[in-house]
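My current task is to audit a protein record that another person submitted. Alongside the sequence sits a line of tokens, each denoting a local backbone shape. Please read both lines and tell me whether the tokens look consistent with the sequence. Do not assume that whoever made the record got everything right. Thanks in advance; the entry in question is below.
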Amino acid sequence: QVQLVESGGGQVQAGGSLRLSCAASGGTFRNFAMGWFRQAPGKEREFVAGINWSGSTTNYGDSAKGRFIVSIDSPKSTVYLHLNTLKPEDTAVYYCAADDVGPNYYCSGSTCYAVDSQYDYWGQGAQVTVSS
């Protein structure tokens, strides 16, 4: 059974940085797409970033562009989300997600990796709190 475990969350002052990690286990992941989503209290889940398993394709939500970077270490089955220039409005629970898209998956455009309902597996979430 595929399991995703996030780590690296915590409290940080505005303008600071954090690196979230998502360790995947229990599957063969070469055909997986990986995503990061976040959800703040009272708000809907929001797409943050996505990446294919090889790392050759990435996509970012509008709130993440220019500040966050998603990367992957495929041999370690670990996906990272680098959170930079954090703002209080970035405070949320950040979730890692995985989707077995198969060997012939093709994706381009703004919706790549961005549809949360298409992900098969989810981590438990990591709290990120950004203070003023």
The mean pLDDT is 95.
